[in-house]
Amino acid sequence: MLKSTIAPMLLTLHSKTKTNTILPFKTPIFCTLLPQSPPTVRRNASTKPLTIETPETPSYNLPPASAYIHLPFCRKRCHYCDFPIVALGSTSPETADDDPRILNYINTLIREIEATKTHFDPHPPLQTVFFGGGTPSLVPPRLVAKVLDTLRSRFGICLDAEISMEMDPGTFDDRKLKDLMGLGVNRVSLGVQAFQEELLKACGRAHGVKEVHEAIEIIGSCGVGNWSMDLISSLPNQTQEMWEESLRLTVEAQPNHVSVYDLQIEKDTKFGSLYTPGEFPLPSDTQSAKFYRMASRTLGEANYNHYEVSSYSKSSFECKHNYTYWINKPFYAFGLGSASYINGTRYSRPKKLKDYTNYVKNLEDGLVDLGEEDDVDEGEMAMDIVMLSFRTSKGLEFKSFVEDFGSEVAVELCKVYEPYMKSGHVLFLDDQRREITEDEFSSLVLDDEKLENEIGFIRLSDPDGFLLSNELISLAFGVIDP
């Protein structure tokens, strides 16, 4: 499923990370500079070092209530993918039940879960579980059941937990889906990516348009009440008409949730050897921005709420698991190449199977302790929170940020965004989420105390602010760590 096509925003989160890896969520990045965008405004930020205050009860010290499970199996590697996967080749979903590669991996994964120390007492049951990949729907339900049973035994799982699974067209039938639903899987993320045969073939996808429509029909006939569809924009030779068609057919399929990702060219992929970003047959930056605006407009008109930079949902169908990431809450992660977030530190697993197997053995032997408390750099934590909050339509909770990191850095953050507030890329809201006008802000910015009291939220506008997110987030980093 789509992971590696989306470059990690600003390359990585800034919290202390043990062993680099791709984080277990999809992070689109937009490099397009909008016409007449304000110049760099470092002059609006104080040049003296800012004092970052330490929160009394930081959320990163809470016990995780979410778990990401990486199931790396695919039929073949897509041309844009550099994520850690295991290509099964011609193995069909029907014969995967006895594939020793899947059996051995699941056994190792279960060993990792069982060997993980929690260091939390009491430990709350898991509220969300997300099976990502790879193509998790290639894994037989009986093996998924073993993983869920292990999680339930080790941590507990809430009766109403959101349990999501990424699934590809052509890798499941109604029987398999019903079996998975019987295990507790109650949310499906369908990796469609495009509704044009030529684009799917050009991407190296293992499914075609026929399988896409069959998968949508299976989901409907099985009564899945919560499902999402993934689309990719800015594909080679993708035209505006193709993108309009994909968005129209998506709306007609009536998923509860839609994820829209902008293709990123990774160097160690087939696309990386064939194409240069911004050059034909890839769309220009301007065209990519048009695709993004078109998605925002089309899905908005169909009553999808654009609640996160790449995510749209019907009311009450936001992905609870992914929202854990956006609000910087801790989470477990298990499996090849996955990264967990515990006690303010991101822990990464190896991306190669042999190394991952050795890692699990070391974990069992007590040579790895994922729950140990490390010193957390509060400046890096502040940067994480700003970056993740700006991905969402809710934005940065300003008073909470003041409470956690101090008024000085928060006030400077407001001042550095003044030109972007005037250009419409950044919005300042009061506690009731009423947008503060330019005149009101011009008055507030003259009085730090008033500014601190009146601002409730800071968010990026949709779509222009989201499209300029790289530059805007970089400005925040410059304020927090000048």
Please tag this protein with its features:
single chain; 482 residues; alpha/beta; TIM Barrel; 2 domains; 9-stranded mixed beta sheet; 18 helices; 38% helix; disordered N terminus; coproporphyrinogen oxidase activity; oxidoreductase
Overview of this structure, please?
The strands form 4 sheets. Strands 10-11-9-8-7-6-5-2-12 form a 9-stranded mixed β-sheet, sandwiched between helices. A 3-stranded mixed β-sheet has the order 1-14-13, with no helix packed on it. Strands 15-17-16 form a 3-stranded antiparallel β-sheet. It is an alpha/beta fold. Residues about 1-55 have low confidence and may be disordered. The protein is globular and about 70 Å long. It has helices spanning about 100-115, 140-155, 175-185, 195-205, 210-220, 240-255, 270-275, 285-300, 320-325, 355-365, 380-390, 400-405, 405-415, 420-425, 440-445, 450-455, 465, 470-480, and strands at about 15-20, 65-70, 75, 85, 125-130, 155-165, 185-195, 225-235, 255-260, 305-310, 310-315, 330-335, 340, 345-350, 395, 425-430, 455-460. The protein folds into 2 domains: about 35-55 and about 375-480, no CATH class; about 60-325, Aldolase class I (TIM Barrel). It has 18 helices and 17 strands.
